[in-house]
Design a protein that fits this description.
Belongs to the ROK (NagC/XylR) family. InterPro entries: ATPase_NBD, ROK, ROK_cs. This is ROK family protein. Pfam families: ROK. A five-stranded mixed sheet has the order 5-4-3-6-9, sandwiched between helices. It is α/β, with parallel strands linked by helices and about 350 residues long. It folds into three domains: about 1-30, no CATH class; about 35-145 and about 310-325, 2-Layer Sandwich (Nucleotidyltransferase, domain 5); about 155-305, Nucleotidyltransferase, domain 5. It contains ten helices and 14 strands. The protein has helices at about 70-85, 125-130, 140-150, 210, 215-225, 230-240, 245-270, 280, 285-295, 315-325, and strands at about 5-10, 25-30, 35-40, 45-50, 55-65, 95-100, 105, 110, 135-140, 160-165, 165-175, 175, 270-275, 305. It binds zinc ion. Zinc ion binds near residues 202 and 204.
Length: about 350
């Protein structure tokens, strides 16, 4: 590993009380290889070119797009080409491209994407045929959880909630991502909150994400205020002014999300629940509002916090996947910021 520049010697340790040879201290060299990460939403694509330890070399963000099966490959190709132009010299070069997709993924296959049509193409084959690097595809919420585990958290068992148009939970238990037999584990957005409720693209009625997602909050707020355009900043401004309608809406949203969190906590008994949501970042008080409702025996002591990695958690999760495969390890932990 020293020859491969994967570890470097940092000194000689203490032999301790047992005698014998003094241990050689080793440090992982995260600068020996390069990683490419993509977060692909239904209206944006973000790329991160980094060293294996997450240190950024270049990033790109294209927003207000409509991502679909006709343009996604071209967008990825352009961004990877931009990254390759600025690649620093390293021992191993680019060791992988990982794509985060908002949907069900099983063994690199995009199985079900309710908010865009990437499940109608073989994304893995198309990207693999263009670039000489290994390609990995994983669910966005799973990668977000893995990003937190690898780059921000001191905990071994955590749940990360990704809240956008949908709501997905990424589950890490004892350092390992739990994806289930078919890649469907953690799809709590499709747990049923109201039987016979609002129809969901998944085919169920009354799914949690039809009531507690960011999209639903934006839509309800827009309707309430007669607005055609809403963003987190506008909702935050109304909230800080203590606008009664906004306060009621936020209270309802956090209460309904707390039911989803309660349910997932009873299933997995994590050490911490990390929320990854632009609206929860803009109004951190919402985390406290969720906690108020978490008062049952099974959920009252659970730690809940906003994501330390914020909107970069998913990209860091992609970097973790590239690193795991390259190093052939199941667990990777770079630093502990919490
Ligand atoms: Zn559903």
């Amino acid at each position: 590993m020293i020859e491969d520049e994967l570890v470097t010697e940092t000194g000689i340790g203490d032999a301790g009380n047992s005698g014998g040879r003094k241990p050689i201290l080793l440090k992982f060299n995260g600068k020996s290889a390069l990683s490419i990460s993509f977060d692909i939403g239904y209206d944006y694509i973000e790329g991160l070119f980094s060293f294996l330890d997450g240190d950024e070399i270049k990033s790109e963000s294209k927003r207000k797009l409509k991502i679909d099966s006709t343009n996604v490959v071209g967008l990825i190709r352009t961004i990877v080409s931009d990254f390759e132009k600025v690649a620093p010299e390293t021992k191993h070069g680019i060791i992988g491209i990982t794509l985060a997709i908002h949907g069900v993924i099983h063994q690199n296959k995009v199985v079900f994407t309710p908010y865009y049509d990437l499940d109608t193409m073989d994304l893995y084959e198309e990207i693999s045929s263009i670039f000489p690097y290994p390609v990995y595809i994983e669910n966005e919420a799973n990668l977000t959880a893995l990003g937190e585990y690898t780059f921000s958290s001191t905990f071994d068992s955590l749940i990360s909630l990704s809240i956008h148009s949908g709501i997905g939970a990424g589950i890490v238990e004892d350092g390992k991502l739990q994806i289930g037999k078919h890649g469907k584990a953690g799809e709590i957005g499709h747990s049923i909150l109201y039987p016979s409720g609002t129809t969901c693209p998944c085919g169920n009625q009354g799914c949690l994400e039809q009531y507690a997602s960011n999209k639903v909050l934006y839509d309800e707020f827009a309707k309430l205020k007669g607005l055609t355009h809403v963003n987190t900043q506008i909702i935050r401004d109304y909230y800080l002014k203590k606008d009664t309608e906004t306060m009621i809406l936020i209270e309802k949203n956090t209460y309904l999300l707390s039911i989803g969190i309660n349910n997932v906590v009873t299933l997995y008994d994590p050490e911490i629940v990390i929320i990854n949501s632009s609206i929860y970042r803009a109004i951190p008080e919402m985390v406290e509002l969720v906690k108020v409702h978490m008062n049952g025996y099974f959920s009252k002591d659970i730690m809940i916090c906003n994501s330390p990695l914020e909107d970069k958690a998913t990209l860091y999760g992609c970097t973790a996947i590239n690193g795991q495969h390259f190093l052939n390890v199941q667990r990777l932990k770079f630093n502990e910021k919490i």
